[in-house]
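Summary for the steering committee. The consortium agreed at its last meeting that each partner would contribute one worked example illustrating the joint modelling workflow. Our contribution is presented below. We chose a case with several input lines so that the handling of multiple components could be demonstrated. No manual editing was applied between input and output; the record is shown as generated.
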Amino acid sequence: MVARLEITLKSDLFDAEGEAIRRKARDYFNIQLDEVRTIHVLTIDAQLSQEQLESARRQIFTNPVSQISSFKPLAPSFDWAIWVGFRPGVRDNPGSTAVEAMEDLFKIRFQPEEAVYTSRLYLLQGKRLGRDKRGYRLVERIAKELLANDLIQQWRIYSTEEWNPQEGIGIIVPKVRLAHEPTVATLPISSDEELQALSQKRNLALHPNDVPVIRSYFLRPEVRTARSEVGLSDPTDVELEYISQARSDHCNHNTFQGKFYYRDLGTGETQVVDNIFKTCIQAPTLELKQRKGWVVSVLWDNAGVASFDQDTYYVITGETHNSPSNMEAYGGALTGIVGVYRDPMGTGKGSRLIAGTYGYCVGYRDYRGPLKPHLHPRRLLDGVIEGVRDGGNKSGIPTPYGQVFFDHGYMGKCLVFVTALGMMPATVSGTPSEQKTTTAGDLIIMCGGRVGKDGIHGVTASSEIYSEDTPAGHVQIGDPYTQKKMHDFLLEARDRGLIAFITDNGGGGLSSSIGESARFSQGALVELDKVPLKYEGLDLWEIWVSESQERMTVAIKPEDLKRFMQLSEKHEVESTVIGQYTDSGRLQITYHGKTCAYVDLALLESGFPQWEFEAEWVEPEYRGLKEPVLGPPEGHRRILLTMLSRPNIASKEWVVRQYDHEVQGTSAVKHLVGAERDVPNDGVVLRPRLDSLRGLAMAQALNPTYSRIDAYHMTACTIDETVRRLLAVGGSLGHLGGVDNFCWPNIQYDPESNPDGKLKAAQLVRANWALRDYCLGFGIPLLSGKDSMYVDGNLEGDFGERHKVSGLETLQFTGTSVIEDVQRCLTMEPKVPGDFLYVLGVTRNELAGSEYYDLYGYTGLNVPQVKLKEVLPLYQALEQSTRGEILASVHGIYRGGLGVHLALMAMAGGLGLEVELTKVPAEGVKRDDVLLYSESAGRFIVTVAPGDRAEFEERFKGLPWGCVGRVTEKQKLAVRGLGGNVLFRVGLQQLKSAWKKPFGKL
Amino acid sequence: MQKNNDNSSSSFGTRSAPKALVLTGFGLNCDWETTYALELAGAEAHRVHINQLVMGEEIGEIARLEDYQIFAFIGGFSWGDDHGAGVIFATKLLYNIGEDILRFIEEGNLVIGICNGYQAMVNVGLLPGFDGDYRSRTVALIGNDCGNFRDQWVHLEVEKASPCVFTRGLEHLELPVRHGEGKFYAEESVIKDLEEKNQVVVRYADSEGNSANGSYPDNPNGSMNDIAGICDSTGRVFGLMPHPEAYSHWTNHPNWTGLKERYRRGGEPYPQEGYGIQIFRNAVEYFRQ
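What follows is the complete predicted structure of the assembly.
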């Protein structure tokens, strides 16, 4: 039987969840509601007695102090009601834990077809809502644009008239019913055209150049003979799906390994740039690895490994989850963060997660234009924030750092960067922890969640541009609870020496994880019928490529099986032996003993042609970029306040505070610092070993607007900013680890659909040249990195027409540094009145792509450039001063320039600053606004105690610095201009209210 | 820190060190730092998975509550907090090892619940534990008024009249809160009882030590009467929303760099230990008396 349990807060209790919806309906849609109350619904589809149901109601699901509940409808009077529940097959985490709780209480097992489904009923009261058609439309808007996403959820709207108080919402059971016999299809490949058509039809996303290679493999006589011995002829769908996954740009990085015909249209020179991954990422990193003993393992595993101290390593990687988040923000971002957490878990023999970070690039929150993205940027941002929040917080992993950036270009596709850090002991059971391998005879074990239709073709979808036909099946909801149990379990298994090899099931599912791990032993035999499923009826290829989350693939020795399974039982994690590694040279997949795939592993390692791109570079001045003709402004005070209120500068405390950034007890420098703990610091520092004073500093940067001029300088500035952020908290130049995450619009030229593809390709090449130049220059090995290449969308406009919207060429750069003693770390707020204020580094007229030019709608031409020879000695002096503890505070000058960053420091310290612009080291700057808002790289602001002044100035002898003023007790930022006049004097409270105006109430 | 064995014991435990059980598993997550804080305070702390208490024999790893003197219910998201924070955690405890826990308390031992652990204790009825009744559910921790999960440091004033063992000698504390469901709620009569019996242990305050009076964000969740933590009638069972284990080192504090600048200029030594450790040290001291 099916029972429906409704639970709600007692009527006199404040319903915070309902109130948040009321507020959003008002703020987002101007819909006035008087009250919203929520009812939680559990639909229990299981053979339970009345007594058991009643016992579950009382003993588990109802808090007698705060809630009431009933198996009958609870809804009292309302004006409108909205019910929202999942669509069949969507991951329902509370539904699963409800089953777990009842199984434990009654000591029973639910049958495979039994389940609990959770949903919500929202009761809306609103006198001004109206009960007519207009009222319905408003309510529908709330349902559609606030409460439910039709990709994963269904909803129903009830008016008071329609509502049946006895039946309520009735019984809705979103059970997956697949009346389908699992099959294997053999696919004909009589011509390239046929295979290409098949690729389109089945959404395989095969590159046209790959098609002949795949065909010729299956036509080879020796291949056909071998295949006939196992009962196969033409390729099966399992095989083609496997090849497609492995060859996708997402897994194989065909773009970065491609061949670029790069032509500079200004000089007419042409050069062939062969494989930017090899030349700009791999080669510099290997060269640096030689010199830097702390680099342990890079460029091959799920994440990079570096030394933290003598017997501990840290592990880091970064990912993006753009396409799924663009369609289902919460689920996409949640899946993204828990997904990237599996990378360190699957690095070496496995590491323990110690931190995660976020980066969101979205359209403007207050967008009111005609374009119709699937999710409005405001809703999208709310969703991704919450997704990463639940993913991080529920995993018990601190989220100490992150960034949010707004630009119209991200309306086409948003960017969701997620980064994960882990720790592992240098040795595990006496063997190096970073090493792992599979050996013939090892068992293949799948741990964690079960397999359903979720996420099928996620990898290939992220290798395509977003359009309305993108299959929605790849949108999923992550399950941090299951993953946390698995994390704890696998670490215990690791420490007992049971793990020979471990990797995660992310993009491509088993197809990727087994496909890749089998390359070590040179073969695998997989029994697909052993794979535990969420529900019956999946085709074999679907089991093989499904991206159902929270799964790891582990290799263990047969003799360790019992111990491994016992630990698995202890942690209540499902683990299943699904095959064995072999040395046959082949991947063989069977289903109930019958072979359905038989592919030479060597196929994927050779013979595929490189992707090719035409790249054409046009210097910015020849693209029509120029410096604006802009007379000097007068209202300096208003400019500063306006700058502080701009979305890319304004306070984002509302995001930071939703993340648990202190779990594990390791927080040493937090993201929000200062007297009122509300101003973002340059970077953060963790003390990941509680018994040690050693720290791990972490910071990230992105500067996509500079790409409007030249992605080379965008990249240089982003790396420089990351380095400065690390130095500001106390990091050292001797240990700088990097992670590059590229997000680029499509670079494949097409005269109609991508007319500027060649320029975007040239930008990618240039960005990688800068990556190479500055990583070598600063000495940053790239511990890890990823690319996501199709940041474009085709959005519908007012008249049904479609506009292609491309994201800015974006690099998120992550940096790490190890600090010997966290007690030497610094934060950015001035600390003591009377201290001297210095600016280090040269300010030039470099406003192109800046926040200041953007205020007026200009792009400009003079993009900030990083002069390595000039900045390196300055950075060395700064590092020595930090080490010598002669600085009271350090802060880098980033987006918004000197003016904005002086204001941030004053606000943070709760102390005044008196500044004279004439003392700021500058070159070719004659105007106050240029000096205040130029975004030249390589600069810092520091404060120094009077007693340390002489030593400080001695250390910086011969370097560009200026003592620009003092820290004061007055609650004012006072700036004198180049003419010696007072430019402005602004109270700290006023600065802060301007800075908190846009998002302060969220 | 990366121990090779869950049950490895303290390196600085002494013969007189009380043994502390730190409960882990099913999404609980403050196990390492709580273990560390207890050890720093002088206890011999062990991480123990719930199933070692529930089905130790089947999994070949048995743990017994009677071997311990301090029982720590730690923070985390047990069972994802899907049906209310600490709800399934409480059911799991009550219907599997409920009797053992009652015996543990009756035998004069100490219990501390932090955040998710506190929520579970309240749901089991271990708190408020009026006059030895550890089965009645009379208070609740419900969704924050702000509608969101929130991480911030709070000021706490310790009620001097409280019998709580863990807060002896403490007056003022700063600790982080990190929760979405921390609003203390009970009927007026229950609150009255709690206050009259001095079972309110810590309250949210402002930076001057004045009562927060419900004002956000000093009172971060809308808790009635600013209540941040309560104990039972004996003072041996204590639960609170803020995280003392997250303040084990002085650099955990959000303004430590400012403090350091003052120490440095004054030529004073740095304090090293975080103030949160006092709570655990009081527990250890209790057994040394």
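The longest helix of chain A spans residues 757-778. DSSP finds 28 helices and 43 strands in chain A.
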